[in-house]
Here is the input.
Amino acid sequence: MSKKKIKVDNIEIRISEKGGKDFFCITDIAKKFNSKAPTETVRNYFRNGKNIEYMAAWEQLNNKGFNMVLADVIRIESYDNAFTLSAKEWIKRTGAIGIFSEVGRYGGTYASKDIAYQFAMWLSPVFQLFIVTEFDRLKQIEEKTDAFYLNKMFDNSLENNRIVKQFLQKRGELPSDEIE
Here is the structure.
């Protein structure tokens, strides 16, 4: 699992890659709005029936093993004022893959890019737009860097191929018309 960070409005947000997908630390996002107890903000997100609906919709589209029946039960339970739900409980009860938690000093709750964007929107539409803009900017830089290295590798392989052909021709193992 590789980790990178983006800085948005003076807040560092960790991004973890898992299974080829980007997961944003929503605990870091929550720090923008509740620096003393960001985990409480995340827990409040899980208490909201509309947020549960969104996460369930994401899981239905991306997770064949998702238990939609239990997700509906949780959504109905969310209308009770005493209702609480953690990320771990959501994962355990439904088989969700769009969210995961890491414990420890640098732990936090991570959500798929789509769920993280919706979490940020729930907190602040403006902040959510900042996150999307910054992440898109970084992805464009990554793509340009990847394209540069692929082109460099291709150029190097052409040069190596030319050198090998010349060597084989000098040894008489390749006809001279095979050389460019």
Observations:
- The CA atoms of residues 64 and 95 lie 10 Å apart.
- The longest helix spans residues 125-170.
- Residues 3-125 form one domain.
- The mean pLDDT is 85.
